[in-house]
Amino acid sequence: MRHLIDICDLSKEEIEELLSSAQDIAVHPSYYNESCKEKILATLFFEPSTRTRLSFETAIQRLGGSVISCDDPATSSASKGESLSDTIRVIDNYADIIAIRHPFAGAALLAAQNAHIPIINAGDGEHCHPTQTLGDLFTIQQEKGSLNGLNIGLCGDLLYGRTVHSLINAFSYYENTTFTLIAPQELQLPKPIIEAYAGHPSINFVFAQSLEDALPKLDVLYMTRIQRERFSVEAIYNALFGYYVLDANKMKLAKKDCIVLHPLPRLNEIAYDFDDDPRACYFKQVKNACLMRQALILYLLKHRHDRPITPTLEKAAPHDKKCINPHCIISKDPSAKTLGMINSKGHPICAYCEHILS
Ligand code: NCD
């Protein structure tokens, strides 16, 4: 069964196919309005969301399909103590495809292990968010004309910002990307991600102290919200809130064609005075992400019986070491058992959250 747990579950060729399919859907929407007739998408959202859930629901309906939805954890069986595996085994009988969002890393993988229909990860804790990345790639390609040779500034919460993690993984398929990391020490990119790409042939990380230092060199600036819900100590969040604010004045330092992206919702990290600048592309991203979700749903339903390209589930094996990440689905769900994988540096990592096992 094909699933989308993280972006590299798709090959580069498949991503390119989705990009052209989204382009075609944008130009000929009516050709597609019955292509998922009688198909049902279940949106299973255990974490707050407006745009992502509505984007998936819009996508399936624009393809002629329909939606069943569970968007309030408080009214779902999970609140009665049902395991995620059981919930998925039930919904498996109602829907043709599931989009799941969950506060714990690895929840989408656990769902995939219990499903006979494709699972799409719509965000699993601080881990990954591959469909946001599909929309980001589409937007960058449209605005910059290419996905190669870019200097992309990642600004804000790089520690907990799952959209950033998936975006970096996606660019491992493209040539000569510099990621300029603009983050306070406390919110810097997780070490395992920095280590995984050390010496990578096409990804290079550079660190910048401030937006002002980074801006003149960037082709793309990807702003992010500080993820309040992931902090265990509110005072730390409060101290970091407002650390980086982009406004029209600061953007005078940037190239004339440096685009600004944001997965939204924004808080104060982009001032409203920049919104009318043609380089502000965050609302185009919303439109593009919906087109990419249409392309993805079509693709996964068509290819659902293909062999997965990343053998995550096959490689994963019970391990004598334990995952101690408190944000991993292992710590939350009684049906999840430790699964180990070996990462590119030879370390045993948790198949769900990718933290080193201990
Ligand atoms: C992002 C998310 O949920 O990770 N939003 C989204 O899906 N568009 C970013 C965020 O919540 O800050």
What would a concise description of this structure say?
This protein is an alpha/beta fold. It is 31% helix and 15% strand.
Give an account of the 3D structure:
The chain has helices at 12-27, 51-62, 84-91, 107-113, 130-144, 162-171, 191-196, 211-214, 234-240, 282-302, 312-315, and strands spanning 40-45, 66-70, 97-102, 119-124, 151-155, 177-182, 203-207, 220-223, 259-261, 317-318, 339-342, 348-350. The chain is an alpha/beta fold. Strands 7-6-5-8-9 form a 5-stranded parallel sheet, with helices on one face. The chain has a 4-stranded parallel sheet with strand order 2-1-3-4, with helices on both faces. It has a 3-stranded antiparallel sheet with strand order 10-11-12. Strand 1 (40-45), helix 2 (51-62) and strand 2 (66-70) form a beta-alpha-beta unit. It is globular.
Which key phrases capture this entry?
358 residues; alpha/beta; five-stranded parallel β-sheet; four-stranded parallel β-sheet; binds N-carbamoyl-L-aspartate
